[in-house]
């Protein structure tokens, strides 16, 4: 991989990781559309270190609050803000178990382009429906244990490219009544532990490639692009719907299907 390719992969990962459009699908689609070699799941996970850094930088004050809240819960405080970090921790478990159980499939059969055509389309419809029918009257402090576990459980399906971790968790949050900003923020908070866990499991890839400049260019670029995408999404959903992302997913699925048929 040359530096230019690394820049492209980093920008793609950073811009799509937190938008409800599936970063894993985009990282697979880049080599399909460009003819470049598929760098594989280990490289994808390495890029997640960059977007994880983006979340920590952008939400540094919130993270400090979550840490203090977790400590407060241990010392007897049962306020909603103190229990939220523990709800996030519990909600992470289903996704972690699913990822461990289906790691092989995630590296092989799940990366099928035709599967992505289906998941991009299905999740577009689901997000559109949730954005239309969700009551959107609940905030972060209203997230119960049940709501947290439901969102965490559906997050497990994000292992399939095209589903989108942010897309499916935001969709679930909206269906459970969260207002758009709360659904997005909870999705971001859920991303931190599961992304860190996946990065640790695949850390050998980074260790073995410490001397490869392209890897670090990709990771750094994904961090910068991730901060930009995070700010754009948080700002956008305060006053607007998810319809543009729905349209984009359907259009991308159509283009991918047409490309695959033309090459058949």
Describe the overall structure:
The chain has 264 residues and is mainly α. Helix content is 77%, strand content 0%. It is built from 13 helices and no strands. The radius of gyration is 18 Å and the shape is globular. The protein starts with a helix and ends with a helix. The relative contact order is 0.20.
Quick overview:
The protein is an all-alpha fold.
List the main descriptive attributes of the protein structure presented here:
single chain; about 260 residues; mainly alpha; about 75% helix; globular
Overall spatial form: globular
Low-confidence blocks of residues: none
Total DSSP E strands? 0
Overall pLDDT level: 89
Number of helices: 13
Sheet with most strands: none
| N- to C-terminal distance | 27 Å
Strand percentage: under 5%
Over the alpha carbons, how many angstroms does the gyration radius reach?
A: 18 Å
**Range of helix content:** over 70%
Structural class: mainly alpha
Order of helices and strands: HHHHHHHHHHHHH
